[in-house]
Amino acid sequence: MEVNVLNINGQETGRKVTLNESIFAIEPNDHVLYLAVKQYLANQRQGTAKTKERSEMSGSTRKLGRQKGGGGARRGDINSPLLVGGARVFGPKPRDYGFKLNRKVKVLARKSALSYKAQENAIIVVEDFDIETPKTKDFINITKNLNVDGRKLLLVLPKENKNVYLSARNLQRSEVMSASTLNSYKILNADVLVVTENSLKVIDGILTK
C-alpha cells in the first residue's frame, strides 16, 4: 500500500512510501485488540479503594446487648457491620488491576489496530519536521493544513520532541507520542494517525523483530 508523503503545509512532496503489509495489511484480530485495550485500561486504575473491616475500627468493644432474648441479631459491639457507622464486610482493599500479556499478543494487537486505520484510510504520512519554539498556534496551523483539525488526532514521532509535545498539549483532541511508546488503545482511540517518515522505520523495526 503506497501513501503520498506530505509536508506540514499539506502539500505533496512528490514522494511516496510503501506501508509494510505485514503491519498495515493483516487480517485484524479483534480478540487480541480487546485484551490489549483491557490491559491498558486496567493499568490506568489506581486501585487505592479501601474500607475498614471490623478489626481496623476504633470504638468500644463493649457488648451492646445480651446474646439472646433481644428479638434481633447478635450484633456484638458498636463496630458491628450491622450498625450505621460500623465496619464493612468484605470491602475493597488496595490492589493492582494489571495483568500480563505475552509480547507476541501485544505486537499482534498493534498490527491489528494499524491495519484497521489503514483500511479506513486514516493514516497520513508527513515528512519529518520540528517546531523551533513551543507554540500552540503553530500546531493548529499544521492540523489545518493537513485537514485534520476538529478530529481526534494522534501524531507519531520517531523520538520524543519537547517543542512539538508542548505545542499540542493544550489541545484536547490532539496527542503526540513517540513510535516506541505507541499502543493499541491510543491507535484505536484516534480518528486519524499522522505519522512521520522516520516513525514508520521505527515502527517497522519494533513490530517485525
State the end-to-end distance: 21 Å
Query: Over the alpha carbons, how many angstroms does the gyration radius reach?
Result: 27 Å
Order of helices and strands: EEHHHEHEHEHEH
Percentage of residues in DSSP E strands:
5-15%
Class inferred from helices and paired strands: alpha/beta
General form? elongated
The third-level CATH topology of the largest domain is Ribosomal Protein L4, Chain: A
**How many β-strands, per DSSP?**
6
Write out the strand line-up for the largest beta sheet, numbering strands in chain order: 2-1-3-6-4-5
Name of the level-1 CATH class of the largest domain: Alpha Beta
> Which CATH architecture of the largest domain?
3-Layer(aba) Sandwich
CATH superfamily of the largest domain: Ribosomal protein L4/L1
Please tell me the total number of domains.
2
Helical amount: 25-40%
Mean pLDDT: 93
Count the DSSP helices.
7
List unreliable stretches of 5+ residues. Answer: none
The biggest beta sheet, please? 6 strands, mixed
Can you describe this structure?
The protein has about 210 residues and is α/β, with parallel strands linked by helices. Helix content is about 35%, strand content about 15%. The chain has two domains: about 1-45 and about 95-209, 3-Layer(aba) Sandwich (Ribosomal Protein L4, Chain: A); about 45-95, no CATH class. The protein has a six-stranded mixed sheet. Strand 4 (about 155), helix 5 (about 160-170) and strand 5 (about 175-180) form a beta-alpha-beta unit. Helix 4 crosses helix 5. The chain starts with a strand and ends with a helix.
